[in-house]
Specification:
Length: 276
């Protein structure tokens, strides 16, 4: 619906909103002292690199993991190394009751949640004609349902608090039909969470920010096949995969007060893969 000339000349009640009360020094903006950050899929790969980044910036962290109990030891190491509170929680993000309970446990243990990073995900790289319905459901239950459950229940916390920050890990595969691997279910699941995150940014505009990170090929345990990696070298403008240390700063920026004017954005970090 278009605005009339009269409407456009009228200042809406409550606008303009005030600027945030944040430091002017950019390094101070990037510090997370006193903040509580939850990271799902935090046992290794991008998730652990992000947990490490948050602890390095002095945040207290809740590391969620599914089956890799090494997360418990890693949380203890981050706590002792950086002098922060770090606790590991075993969570199946595809189970809504477990997600709801664990979010309540985190609030009880830490007192609040400032930032929630929905990073857990999985891929079964098969064409749809070769993939079973069980494999389809498994991917959707983690990549789609898991993000939705986390968002729903942490969103309730954010709304009660009056503040919050959700960061969703999507993929460049939500932007393109990734090659050379046929993985239509994974691609579609990531397209879902990208648009879901943008929609939440609008819905939650009164109390929380929401942004999306879309990584390309990174050297992780969830990495692609040698065939796909060789194609990544050819397709990427930088001619290589990313190292997880190269993504830490992006998540820190989005989690910090340096990005307070940023919501609903989907940030590609792919070495220029989608440029051609």
């Amino acid at each position: 619906m278009s605005m009339s000339t009269t409407d456009s000349a009228t200042v809406r009640e409550g606008f303009p909103r005030p600027f945030p009360n944040t430091p002017t020094n950019v390094l101070a903006q990037l510090r997370l002292s006193g903040k509580v950050v939850v990271i799902t899929g935090a046992a290794d790969g991008i998730g652990y690199a992000v947990a490490e980044a948050m602890a390095e910036a002095n945040a207290n962290i809740a590391m969620w993991y599914n089956s890799n109990d090494v997360a418990v030891e890693k949380a203890q190491t981050l706590a002792s190394t950086h002098g922060v509170q770090a606790t590991a929680y075993k969570v199946d993000v595809s189970d809504p009751d477990v997600v709801q309970k664990t979010i309540a446990d985190v609030v009880k243990d830490f007192g609040k949640i400032d930032v929630f990073i929905a990073n857990a995900g999985m891929a079964i790289s098969k064409p749809i004609l070769e993939q079973t319905l069980e494999e389809y459901r498994k991917q959707m239950s983690v990549n789609v349902d898991g993000v939705l459950y986390c968002a729903k229940y942490v969103g309730e916390v954010f709304q009660r608090q009056g503040f919050g920050n959700l960061i969703i890990t999507s993929s460049m595969s939500g932007h393109i039909v990734n090659v050379p691997v046929d993985q239509p279910v994974y691609n579609a699941s990531k397209a879902f969470v990208t648009h879901f995150g943008k929609s939440l940014a609008r819905e939650w505009r009164e109390f929380a920010r929401v942004n999306i990170v879309s990584p390309g090929f990174f050297e992780t345990k969830m990495g692609a096949s040698p065939q796909a990696i060789n194609e990544a070298y050819r397709m990427s403008a930088l001619g290589r995969q990313g190292h997880v240390k190269e993504i830490k700063g992006l998540y820190l920026y989005l989690a910090s007060d340096a990005s307070t004017f940023m919501t609903g954005s989907d940030v590609l970090i792919d070495g220029g893969y989608v440029l051609p």
